[in-house]
Specification:
Elements (H helix, E strand, L loop, with lengths): L1 E7 L4 H10 L3 E3 L2 E7 L4 E7 L4 E6 L1 H10 L3 E4 L1 E2 L2 E2 L1 E2 L1 H13 L4 E4 L7 E3 L9 E3 L8 E6 L4 E6 L5
Antiparallel strand pairs: 1-5, 1-6, 1-9, 2-5, 3-4, 7-8, 10-14, 11-12, 13-14
Length: 159
C-alpha cells in the first residue's frame, strides 16, 4: 500500500474522493477554508487545496483498475513513466499543516536549490523541509517535494 496522486476532471475532486471511499478505497482530498466576500455578506467556504488532484492509498497492482474506472478520474499522476508515489510523511504533513492553519494556498514551484532542514519544534517537529527563501516574518511555507508544491499560510499577528 502506498499513496498515489490521481488527476481528476475539473471541479470533481470532492465527488471523486467520495466515490472512491464508497468503493472502499482510502482517498484524501485536502481542503481549506477561505473567507469569500459577496456584495451583501461574507462567508467561509471550503475549497479544494490541490485543484484536480486527489490522493489514494492503494495496492497499485490490485486496485489501479478500479481507481481508473471511477467516474471523474482522468489518470494517475506520473513521474518518470511510473505513477507518482507520495510519501506517508508528506500526507501527514499536509494533514497537520491544514489542521494548524486557516486559509492555506498552494504555489507551484520549480525551485531546485536551497538547504534542507529538520524542524525541531512546533507542530511539524521532525519534518524535513527545504528553505526556499524568506518573504517576511508573517508567512510559513511547507514544500511538498514529490508534488512540486508549497503550502503557504499567513501567521496570525499577536497582540
Amino acid at each position: 500500500m502506498a499513496w498515489y496522486a490521481i488527476y481528476t476532471k475539473s471541479r470533481m475532486e470532492k465527488k471523486v474522493s467520495l466515490r472512491l471511499e464508497e468503493l472502499g478505497i482510502e482517498a484524501y482530498c485536502p481542503t481549506t477554508k477561505r473567507k469569500k466576500q459577496w456584495s451583501d455578506r461574507k462567508k467561509w467556504v471550503e475549497e479544494v487545496l490541490f485543484r484536480s488532484y486527489v490522493f489514494v492509498n492503494i495496492d497499485l497492482e490490485k486496485q489501479s483498475g478500479l481507481v481508473r474506472r471511477t467516474f471523474g478520474v482522468v489518470n494517475f499522476v506520473y513521474w518518470l513513466h511510473k505513477p507518482a508515489v507520495i510519501q506517508d510523511a508528506e500526507i501527514l504533513a499536509i494533514r497537520q499543516f491544514l489542521s494548524d492553519h486557516l486559509e492555506v494556498e498552494t504555489i507551484g514551484t520549480t525551485a531546485k536549490v536551497g538547504d534542507y532542514i529538520t524542524i525541531e519544534s512546533g507542530p511539524l517537529t521532525g519534518q524535513t523541509a527545504k528553505i526556499v527563501g524568506l518573504k517576511n516574518k508573517h508567512e510559513v511555507r511547507l514544500k511538498i517535494e514529490s508534488l512540486g508544491f508549497e503550502l503557504v499560510a499567513a501567521l496570525a499577528e499577536k497582540s
